[in-house]
Specification:
The protein is α+β, with helices and mostly antiparallel strands and 104 residues long. The chain has one domain: Nucleoside Triphosphate Pyrophosphohydrolase. Helices cover 16% and strands 40% of the residues. The chain contains 2 helices and 4 strands; from the N terminus they run ββααββ. The protein has a 4-stranded mixed β-sheet, covered by helices on one side.
Length: 104
């Protein structure tokens, strides 16, 4: 909520990772810290992927921006280039993890 009582729009960034077999590996979404740190949507995407999965990622290209009256989310295609799978789930949002981390 803003100082004048208006509801502020939720801002987010999402990383979409697809492997060489065109299998969707993950979609990770987070909130930029731009107001405090100057973090861009792309930087938010990279930070969130690493914080939540342990993988290091780089942006391949912007995909699209989804906007409505309550939210704005910037989607990016990402490529994993390093790191190690570490599931960080402080909000208990990961319900089920399956597959082979070596698929990347």
């Amino acid at each position: 909520m803003t100082d004048d009582g208006a509801v502020s729009k939720w801002l987010g960034a999402a990383g979409v990772c697809v492997n060489s077999k065109e299998s969707l590996l993950m979609v990770k979404q987070g909130t930029p810290k731009g107001e405090k740190t100057g973090e861009s949507f792309a930087e938010c995407c990279i930070r969130e992927v690493e914080e939540e999965t342990g993988y290091r990622a780089r942006i391949i290209r912007p995909l699209f921006v989804k906007r409505n009256t309550i939210a704005e989310v910037h989607y990016f295609e990402v490529e994993i280039y390093g790191g190690k799978l570490v599931i960080q789930d402080p909000d208990n949002l990961v319900m089920k993890l399956r597959g082979n981390p070596g698929m990347i």
